[in-house]
Amino acid sequence: MAATHAGRVAIVTGAGRGIGAAIAAELAARGVRVAALEADPALAAAAGAILCDVADRAAVDAACARVEQELGPVDILVNNAGISPKHEGRAAPVQEMDPAEWDRVLAVNLTGAWNLIRRLAPGMVARRWGRIINLSSVAGRAFTPIVGCHYAATKAALIGLTRHLAGELGPHGITVNAIAPGRIATPMVAAAGGPANAAVVAATPLGRLGTPEEVARAVCFLTGPDATFVTGQTLDVAGGWMMT
Amino acid sequence: MFDLSGKVALITGANGGIPRATAALFHRLGAHLVLTDLDAEALAAFAASLPAAGPRLVTARADVTSRVEVEEALALAGREFGGLDILVTGAGLYVEQEVASMTDEDWRRTLAVNLDGVFHACRAAFPLLRRGGAIVNIASMAGHRGSVRHAHYAACKAAVLAFTRSLVHELAPRGVRANCVSPGIIATPMTEAIMRENGAALIAATPMKRFGAPEEVASVIAFLASDAAAFITGETIHINGGLYMG
Lengths: 244, 246
Fold this sequence. Notes:
The structure holds two protein chains of two kinds.
Chain A: E1 9-12, H1 18-29, E2 33-38, H2 41-47, E3 50-51, H3 57-70, E4 76-79, H4 99-127, E5 130-135, H5 149-169, E6 174-181, H6 187-192, H7 194-202, H8 212-223, E7 234-237
Parallel strand pairs in A: 1-2, 1-4, 2-3, 4-5, 5-6, 6-7
Helix pairs in contact in A: 1-8, 3-4, 4-5
Chain B: E1 8-12, H1 17-28, E2 32-37, H2 40-49, E3 57-61, H3 67-81, E4 84-89, H4 104-125, E5 129-138, H5 142-145, H6 151-171, E6 177-183, H7 192-204, H8 214-225, E7 236-239
């Protein structure tokens, strides 16, 4: 793998498994010194990640300070951490949704991303270079019966956050883009299996689920030397399920 | 950087600013090239400027408005290389005109190059495109938000977006992807006039505070053409420094 990103330092949140772990690995293969953040203690320990719940602002500040001290200033931020609560395999419809669950999804998926950006953008502005990637979802662009309204709302909000920050931070040499994966064959999704995945595959022109590595390669593209004039965009990695 | 070694790519309108940068990048990444353009002499001069070592390269004159000439160019790819992996439709015509004074001929001429030309090339590519292949059509920011005094051009580019998304369904069973790039204001001979007349306002409206370079579009085309984008089809990537974020 060519060291296209050599010398850069990145933080990837939710990097203990699945898409986040693949992103961390793919960036590392391109020469990036990667700090993985993970909220689940067992996953964090297994992955050698820094334990950090992105919804906890003090914990985010502490984790970022530690990364800066150990690896140096952070050039690349990948906001991947997210939750999509299910009850016996299914998301709560709005009339049954616990308000605490709504609050928690917004705190992790949306405010969590903002917590990292708030902490790291000033350094990027000062150094006049930065790359921020927010992991949205096709669920933020269209109705998908698999997720709850809280998840869909946060994923759409991340697209708005992306556009606005691209406008604010562009003059400072920072690009901000989002990636909207379709259904990706992580261990969790594979375990869900059955009709839900089959229906998605049937509606996907490429006729399969995506892989975590395919999302990771899109992250590397948008943070590397081949996307220097791309900002404020949301890239679907969905096999044609979504086409924008 | 992506590996295109051993792939065969055909680029129409290859003497244009963005297509030239794309051809040069593809050549560096190891792709064999079939380059076509209306201006055979200028194209040959450009081709001669590429490093002689490396992948094979052939050029042909082709007017994309002519079904026969496009089919001949695609047939050349078949004869020389035995098939095709990547098609980039780079031929474009960008004429400043207001609708009120646009003749039927003006309208048809712009559609013939920017829309018929894409159709001709994509159709002729079907039998040659190999599994794992990719089409990248060059649309434009104009196709999303319209374009002052370029209504015919903008209409074509919007049509190319929908054409590409439709093509996705016919190509997917063959293991071929189709995507678009939509460049904003890229510093090329084609945009010299708008940069001169309206450049300061456009840069002020662009978060990245500059115009793009053709190489910055070429690298996105290379990404979409490469295996790095294996799960991306029907997509449009905007390259505009944030000028348009639709």
